[in-house]
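QA checklist item 7 of 12: single-chain prediction sanity check.
[x] sequence parsed
[x] length recorded as 136
[x] structure emitted
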Amino acid sequence: MVVDLYARKVVGWSMKPTLARELALDALLMALWQRKPKGRVIVHSDQGSQYGSDDWKRFCAAHNLEPSMSRRGNCWDNAVAESFFSSLKKERIRKRIYKTRDMARADVFDYIEVFYNRTRRHSYLGGVSPEAFERA
């Protein structure tokens, strides 16, 4: 999952059966397609192995992205991402059982693209949604 820290908007995400490096690359590629950034962009991550892979480093270099990784035990750098996953679990997927992976993916899509980015109010943004914050 990729979050734009300015507006707390989820701009890239992916779902796969395993936590492979392709998962992170797919989410970052989606973010690039949505945002089409001009200039250098900092991409912060935790210390997961997928973010230290050669594929990740080459992808970042090819797209003018500056990888940033905090030291072990520094939880503040990932607070926004952790908060998102906590909200997703509490507000949508807790106690749900999906019959298929496609049903789970559709529900996560609905949560992110319809509710979280467009409707859900964020105290950090003054009580408006990420989309409303960007429009203002």
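[x] summary fact logged: The mean pLDDT is 91.
[ ] second reviewer sign-off
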